[in-house]
């Protein structure tokens, strides 16, 4: 372990005890370790998940393929989803934020690990936090099988209230998949504001934030669920509301990008402030027959014509 772990109750530094738990000497709180995962939610760790056991036996990619095949869909859809799971091009947003590559990244809500794999290529250390126990165990298996030695911690908890990290610990925070609302706050709007404020607290000065937003119609992010089947709730909202939230959360100059034109390649990101992106939105969403065009786009995605590998847009911001 080469990343500081702190008590998620009193924030004091924790110590690893015999490889089975992180113990806090200040308040005697214990965070158990099992299956390569630090468990920070109240109660004992859940039983080992079938997806993690299968991944350990046959390899993470074959296990993922089995899960997706069991959920139905034709060969085109299976190949499309697997490409989204395994490609490192999902991390091309690094060029937008230019993080300190000698620093530490925290990746949230990455159910299959494609973003973690990408981040591990350009950051010195990577920590992973997930809200789904099956996904967390699967992530630990994938990191081990791919030899990602700089993935220093895989953590599973309910939300930011279970973070075993200290403030200003990270140089990059990426929320790139479904993120369930905080259990203490059932309101989705306030929950997103809380997530942004929390990210601000955990970022160092000059650190970068990346948020992936699926579109308001539920496509395509919910079609790439966590290994355990929990879909969670994606971050939804208009660009205007997202911009105002980021500014309120302490990020003065957020930037927004669209994977253009076919949602398949982050290296083709186009600024939402550019003329070409505005033309795209005008033609697709503000056309008199926009409803019909949205239905057509959804049908194209469902048929596998448009790969399901990217949210509708991403936001990037720097902590001043």
CATH architecture: 3-Layer(aba) Sandwich
Characterize the main sheet.
12 strands, mixed
Q: Could you give the order of strands across the largest sheet?
A: 1-2-3-4-7-6-5-8-9-12-10-11
Say how many strands there are. Answer: 12
Proportion in β-strands: 15-25%
Series of H and E elements? EEEEHHHHEHEHEEHEHEEHHE
Rounded Rg: 19 Å
Number of domains: 1
CATH class: Alpha Beta
Structural class of the secondary structure composition? Answer: alpha/beta
Annotated CATH homologous superfamily: Vaccinia Virus protein VP39
Shape: globular
What number is the mean pLDDT? 78
Give unreliable regions as ranges: 216-233, 260-264, 305-311
Number of helices: 10
Tell me the CATH topology.
Rossmann fold
Commentary on this structure:
- The chain is an alpha/beta fold and 320 residues long.
- The protein contains 10 helices and 12 strands.
- It has helices spanning 50-58, 60-70, 75-86, 94-97, 114-122, 133-145, 188-202, 239-248, 275-285, 290-302, and strands at residues 15-17, 21-23, 30-34, 37-39, 104-108, 125-130, 151-156, 170-175, 203-213, 255-259, 269-271, 313-318.
């Amino acid at each position: 372990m080469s990343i500081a772990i702190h008590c998620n109750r009193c924030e004091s530094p924790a110590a690893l005890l015999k490889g089975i738990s992180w113990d806090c000497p200040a308040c005697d709180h214990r965070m158990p370790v099992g299956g390569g995962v630090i468990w920070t939610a109240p109660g004992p760790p859940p039983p080992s998940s079938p997806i993690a056991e299968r991944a350990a036996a046959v390899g993470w990619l074959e296990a993922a393929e089995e899960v997706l095949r069991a959920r139905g869909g034709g060969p085109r859809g299976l190949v499309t989803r697997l490409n989204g799971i395994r490609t490192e091009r999902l991390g091309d947003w690094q060029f937008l934020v230019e993080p300190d590559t000698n620093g530490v990244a925290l990746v949230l809500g990455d159910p299959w690990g494609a973003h973690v794999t990408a981040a591990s290529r350009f950051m010195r250390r990577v920590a992973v936090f997930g809200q789904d126990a099956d996904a967390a165990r699967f992530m630990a298996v994938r990191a081990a099988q791919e030899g990602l030695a700089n993935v220093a911690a895989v953590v599973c908890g309910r939300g930011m209230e279970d973070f075993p990290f200290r403030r200003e610990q990270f140089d990059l925070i990426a929320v790139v998949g479904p993120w369930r609302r905080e259990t203490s706050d059932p309101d989705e709007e306030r929950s997103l504001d809380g997530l942004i404020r929390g990210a601000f607290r955990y970022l160092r000065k000059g650190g970068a934030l990346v948020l992936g937003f699926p579109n308001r119609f539920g496509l395509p992010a919910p079609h790439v669920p966590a290994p355990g089947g929990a879909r969670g709730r994606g971050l939804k909202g208009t660009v205007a509301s997202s911009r105002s939230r980021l500014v309120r959360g302490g990020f003065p100059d957020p930037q927004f990008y669209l994977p253009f034109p076919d949602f398949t390649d982050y290296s083709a990101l186009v600024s939402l402030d550019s003329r070409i992106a505005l033309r795209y939105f005008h033609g697709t969403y503000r056309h008199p027959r926009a409803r019909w065009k949205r239905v057509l786009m959804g049908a194209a995605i469902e048929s596998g014509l448009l790969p399901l590998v990217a949210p509708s847009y991403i936001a990037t911001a720097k902590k001043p």
